[in-house]
Specification:
There is one protein chain. The chain is mostly helical. The protein is about 55% helix and about 10% strand. It has 4 helices and 2 strands. It has a two-stranded antiparallel sheet with strand order 1-2. A hairpin with a 5-residue loop joins strand 1 and strand 2. The two termini are about 25 Å apart.
């Protein structure tokens, strides 16, 4: 699943709009829309988005070990 798909699914699950998310993370709606359409985020941006929507950014190795990424 792409980052964009995961973000959009989570927004739907929690009833938050993209406009509300953009406001929570301090960027314009257009900037968020551009990032979502390109599916292009830095790890730091993803961490900020995850925190805003109640998720954790986690890397999982091939053996299933989790590494939580936080800034």
């Amino acid at each position: 699943m792409s980052a964009t798909a995961a973000i959009k699914n989570r927004l739907k699950d929690i009833g938050m709009s993209q406009i509300e998310l953009a406001q929570k993370i301090g960027i314009t709606r257009q900037n968020l829309n551009n990032k979502l359409s390109r599916d292009n985020f830095t790890a730091k941006e993803l961490d900020k988005i995850c925190k805003a929507i109640g998720l954790k950014l986690v890397a999982v190795d091939k053996n299933g070990k989790d590494y939580i990424i936080e800034y």
